[in-house]
Design brief:
By secondary structure, the chain is α/β, with parallel strands linked by helices. It is built from 10 helices and 14 strands. An 8-stranded mixed beta sheet has the order 5-8-2-1-11-13-14-12, with helices on both faces. A 4-stranded mixed beta sheet has the order 7-6-9-10.
Length: 289
């Protein structure tokens, strides 16, 4: 098949998916290598702009762990982790807020705009988007989201913008900002927006039966299977909280959650607009399509 014919076939294949998702809301949690590599970053931005241009309401939620670590190192402030979570003291929180809500957020907005999108940056404290309480004192200023006010995001979407949201929350129990896990924030926002899909970009193929073998990718997981997969060790380590927030999102009304390999250029488009699904999809019942 000629390359032109192949391109036409790809576009025709995408048509029913575009028709299905136009007007629907999709939340993309952006992080990992796709944030660090310039080539992957550009591919993600182009995917988001294309989806937006065909009428899909795309919301981007991002963290910024590597940039935070780099800035803490630069100012000579030591980072330590408790149970895999960054301990967030007041100095760390100041840096988290300035790096996430400032540098990282505005750089993403600027890049989307340069590539032809219409993006606007929001942080979790804008319009009380995320309100949180202290998760546990042993983690410092790390918060658990208690309330989500999606109005600032809905307003941006309704005026044709791509909202880019950084995961810092306003404290409800103290006069402070809280650092929020980006997967959890994306899941909570997807619920509040009644999103059709939540996409988590990661640095793995998806959920693997054997973590050492990428050929053992599990393409579909039903939420009722998750406890058994945790018990058998298939879901382990950092994948446990990721899966828990996926299950919560589906329980909260999100139709589908996809765990995608952000190291594959254009993985979002391949997953959403082709017959080829390349990651792990979570859904509710076995009999639903």
């Amino acid at each position: 098949m000629s390359s032109h014919a192949q391109q036409a076939k790809t576009l025709v294949e995408a048509l029913p998916y575009i028709q299905k998702f136009t007007g629907k809301t999709i939340v993309v949690k952006y992080g990992g290598n796709a944030m660090i590599s310039e080539e992957l970053r550009r591919a993600v931005m182009c995917d988001i702009i294309l989806l937006s241009l065909v009428g899909i309401r795309v919301v981007v939620v991002h963290g910024g762990g590597p940039e935070i670590s780099e800035m803490l190192k630069r100012v000579g402030h030591e980072t330590h982790f408790v149970d895999g979570l960054r301990y967030t003291d007041e100095t760390t929180m100041d840096i988290v807020q300035s790096v996430l809500c400032g540098k990282v957020n505005k750089n993403l907005v600027a890049q989307l705009n340069r590539l032809g999108g219409r993006a606007v940056g929001l942080c979790g404290m804008d319009g009380e988007l995320f309100q949180a309480e202290c998760l546990n004192e042993k983690y410092g200023l790390v918060g658990r989201i208690m309330e989500v006010n999606p109005d600032p995001v809905i307003n941006a979407l309704s005026t044709g913008y791509i909202p880019v949201v950084s995961t810092v929350a306003q404290g409800m129990d103290a006069d402070t900002a809280y650092n929020i896990n980006a997967d959890t924030a994306a899941a909570k926002l997807a619920e509040a927006l009644h999103a059709e899909k939540l996409i988590l970009l990661t640095d793995v193929r998806g959920l693997l039966r054997d973590p050492q073998d990428e050929e053992t990718l599990i393409h579909v997981v039903h939420t009722y299977e998750v406890p058994g997969l945790v018990a058998s060790g298939v879901i382990s380590g950092g994948m446990i909280p990721k899966m828990e927030c996926c299950v919560d999102a589906i329980a909260g009304g999100v139709e589908r959650v996809h765990i995608l390999d952000g190291r594959i250029p254009h993985s979002i488009l391949i997953e959403l607009l082709s017959d080829e699904g390349i990651g792990t999809m979570l859904k509710k019942e076995a009999h639903s399509a």
